[in-house]
Amino acid sequence: MKLIGEVLQGKRERLGMTLSELEERTHIQRETLMAIERNQFEKLNQPAYAIGFIRKYAQAVNLDGAHLIEKHQEELPETNQFVSKALHQLATTDQSLAYQQRDNETKQVAIVIAGLMVVSAGLWAVLSLVL
């Protein structure tokens, strides 16, 4: 079985894409792309980002990054095993994550704004009577 870097590099080369073109497309530094192609994840400035880099690289060369990562899990740095599993669970979950705004914060902001408006109106009234 080919290593993850070999799979990505092979696909890039079959597409006729240079490292410079891939760098421009993914916004990943050339050195990082080369480390990925050599499976040298420990040489990355932040090995914890390896999965994100792999996904981005895979997307740029029309591969399924999640499937690729799943098949090559043992090649990734140990620190990423937990993160990778969590990301995989999030990616395969049918439930959508929704941002929930707290009502208390909205009410507090509204009260502060209303208070400032009342104080401003009072000051305006006092100043208009004095002048």
From TrEMBL:
Keyword Chaperone among record annotations: no
For this protein, the parts annotated as crossing the membrane are 109-130
Specify whether Membrane is a keyword of the entry: yes
Highest taxon of the lineage: Bacteria
InterPro entries (alphabetical)? Bact_Cytoskel_RodZ, Cro/C1-type_HTH, Lambda_DNA-bd_dom_sf
Which Gene3D superfamilies has this protein been placed in? lambda repressor-like DNA-binding domains
Keywords on record:
Membrane, Transmembrane, Transmembrane helix
Quote one Gene Ontology molecular function term: DNA binding
What is the official name of this protein in its record? Transcriptional regulator
This protein's species is Staphylococcus rostri
